[in-house]
Amino acid sequence: MKNRSLEASQKRMTILTYVVLIAAALLMVFPFIWMILTSFKTVAESNTTPPVIFPSAFRWENFRDAVTSLPFIKLYINTALMIFFRVICAVAFSSMAGYAFAMLEFRGKKLLFGIVLVQMSLPSQIFIIPQYQMVAHMGLANTIFALVFPGIVSAFGVFFLRQTYMGIPKEIGEAAYLDGCTQWQTFYKVMFPLTGTSVAALTIFTAV
Hints:
It is built from eleven helices and no strands. The protein is mainly alpha-helical and about 210 residues long. Helix 4 (about 70-105) packs antiparallel against helix 11 (about 195-205) and helix 5 crosses helix 8.
């Protein structure tokens, strides 16, 4: 009897689990279904209260009008270039700055790193107007540089890679220096390759 009651209880729990998961999946998928259905509606149908779930007629011309109303190819190219250059610049500058903060000793190191931490704590929205003014005064508005400029340096990336470099024994860099490597060679030939996982994570974070 105990085994049967235990099996029945497990079955009920399994059924309940599947019901909850299916309900959650439908809840997650519903906004996408609504978006697709709305794309076939007229403006009046999409703004109707109470809302109309299914359009009176599926209007495929909505997609044609959307594609012809904006230069999507140019927009996609600009987006791809922005992501590419932002990722390259953010990873390069963050790697060098993180290495300097972790491995080198120089005057004002703590103050500069404190500024990086302060920048991380501030919302990015407050930098939009100053960044636009800087780009406009440089005469580079409406260029790809204006898109890349705000993300050319990542405060989070500097902090993240500094912590990564601090986890690498300094003896590795010292051994490279004793073998005749300069500081720059020690960075890009020895230390930077050891941060592969962190750099990959930063690359994904910057791209997203």
